[in-house]
Amino acid sequence: MPQSPATTQYRLDPAREQAILEAIRELLTEVGYDRMSIDEVARRARASKATIYRRWSGKPDMVAAALHGMMIDHPPLPDTGTLRGDLIGAMNAFCRVYERKQPIVLSLLAAIRSDPSLGRVLHEHVLESGVTDATAVFQRAVARGDLTAAPNVGAVVEVGKALLWHRLLLSGEPLDEAWVIHIVDDILRPLLGIHH
């Protein structure tokens, strides 16, 4: 099982770690993955290269940690009292996260094509995020009787993320409320076996 970017053997002071992750995000947006150097991350974060290498094994691991931090940085998902309301609230929350991530992801697309190991690290560490939040949404739905059993949460999250990335990267249209309602009512609820 892949190790979470948040748990490696060497722990940094949280403020120092956040400064390094923020430097990584800034540099990915400004110069892209290929031109981002550990030297420049260290300079910008006022950290030593030795500190960075004790915490992360290299650039792919650092980038995965930076993106993972963005994924989990959102307000708690709302408990609206209905599955439909919870799904709309969750999709809206993830839309805001994905809008913040878009410039960084765009900078990584070419790098993933030339370095498949980067794609694997990102898949292991970043794409798994969201499952914990979604699990809580579906557990509430089962407890309320909105669903008879919890779905395959990973599959539902994967579909939601694919739709978000398609909208952001290919269509360029806004991740607005009308789109979120369309996704929930026309795709996610039918996927869950809800047809009313």
From TrEMBL:
Taxonomic lineage of the native organism: Bacteria, Bacillati, Actinomycetota, Actinomycetes, Micromonosporales
Segments passing through the bilayer: none
Signal peptide, first to last residue: none
Organism the protein comes from: Actinoplanes italicus
Domain HTH tetR-type: 14-74
Record feature DNA-binding region, as residue ranges: 37-56
UniProt-recorded name of the protein: TetR family transcriptional regulator
Protein keywords: DNA-binding, Transcription, Transcription regulation
Keyword Transcription regulation attached: yes
PROSITE patterns: HTH_TETR_1 (PS01081), HTH_TETR_2 (PS50977)
Taxonomic superkingdom: Bacteria
GO molecular function list: DNA-binding transcription factor activity; transcription cis-regulatory region binding
